[in-house]
Amino acid sequence: MQKEKRNKAKEITLESPSILYQDQAVLVVNKPSGWVVNDSQTTANQTTLQSWLSTLNYEIAKDHTLRSGIVHRLDKETSGVIIIAKTPESFAQLQDQFKLRKTEKTYTALVHGKVDPDEGGVNVPIGRLPWNRQHFGVLPGGRQSTTYYKVINYYQDLANIYSLLEVHPITGRTHQIRVHLKYAGYPLVSDPLYTGKKAFKKDRVWCSRLFLHASSISFFHPTSGEKINFSAELPANLLQPLNALQLVKK
Question: Which CDD domains does this UniProt record tie to the protein (predicted)?
Fold first, then answer.
C-alpha cells in the first residue's frame, strides 16, 4: 500500500504535456519524460498521454480504436514533439505519411564516448530479443532500420567524454536510436535498458532520465498539404546535466 502511495505521489509531480500547435485537423504536443504514450493493459497504473488526450475536446479524443489520434510513439523516458490527429481523416492521412516515410524526425541525444567520425549512420536490422522480450537488439532476420547522426559538441567530466548528437531515424522501430547507437559503441546516457548496469547507475547520479529528446518533426499538413515543422527545446532536466559538463572543442 505504501509503495502504491509513493508511486501515485511520483506521478502527480510529473510535468504535464504542453500544446505547441493545434488547428481543426492536428494537435502537436510536447511530451515530457515519464509519460507512456498509449493506454494498454500493461500501463493501467501509469500516466499516459492517451488518457490526457481523452480529456480534450476534439472529434476522436475519446476514440480508443483510433488511439485518441496518436499516429506515432515516443518511449516513456523520451521527451519532445509528438503529432496527434484530431479527425479520422487526418489520422489516416498522417498514418500513411509515417508508413511512406514522408515525415522527418530529429532527436537530440547525449551518448558515452567520443563519436568519431563526427557524422555517420547505422543500417542494421532490429528485432525483439527472444531471451528478453523487453529489450530489442541487432538481429539477423530483424526489421531493416536506418539511423543517421551528427556530432553537435563534445563534453567531458572528470573521468569520461560524451558526444551530443543530432540524430535522424529514417525508419521508426521501437528503441531504434538507443539500439543503433549502442551497436555503434556509443550507448545513451542514463539508458536503463542499453547502457549497462554499472554505467547506468553512475549516470543516474547526475542525469535523472534517459538523455533522448524528440527535438523536431516535419510533416505535410493532412488537409492543406503544406510542409510544416515543429520543434521543442531541451527541457530543464536535460539542460541542467548537460550544463554541468565541460564543453570540449571539436
Answer: PseudoU_synth_RluA_like
CATH number, domain at 26?
3.30.2350.10
In sequence order, the β-bridge partners of residue 148 are: 121, 168
The pTM of the full predicted model, rounded to 2 decimals, is 0.91
> 192-214: per-residue pLDDT in tens?
999 999 999 999 999 999 999 99
Is residue 223 within 8 Å of residue 21, measured between CB atoms? no
As given in the structure block, the three cell numbers for residue 199 are 554505467
Beta partners for residue 231, in sequence order: 216
Q: 203 an active-site residue?
A: no
Cα 148 versus chain centre, distance: 15
Backbone phi and psi for residue 11, each to the nearest 5 degrees, phi listed first: -65, -40
Pairing of strands 132-138, 18-22: unpaired
Pairwise CA distance, residues 160 & 144, whole Å: 32
DSSP 67-101: GGGB-S---TT-EEEEEEESSHHHHHHHHHHHHTT
Rounded distance between C-alpha atoms, residue 195 and residue 111, angstroms = 9
SS3 assignment, position 50 = helix
Q: Is 220 left (phi over 0), alpha (psi -120 to 50) or beta?
A: beta
State how far the Cα of 197 lies from the Cα of 172, in Å rounded to an integer. 26
Taking only the tens place, the pLDDT of each residue in 221-235 is 999 999 999 999 999
CB 210 within 8 A of CB 187: no
The alpha carbons of the chain give a radius of gyration, in whole angstroms, of 18
Q: Which domain holds residue 159?
A: 2-248
Among the listed residues 138, 141, 166, the one whose alpha carbon sits nearest the alpha carbon of residue 153: 166
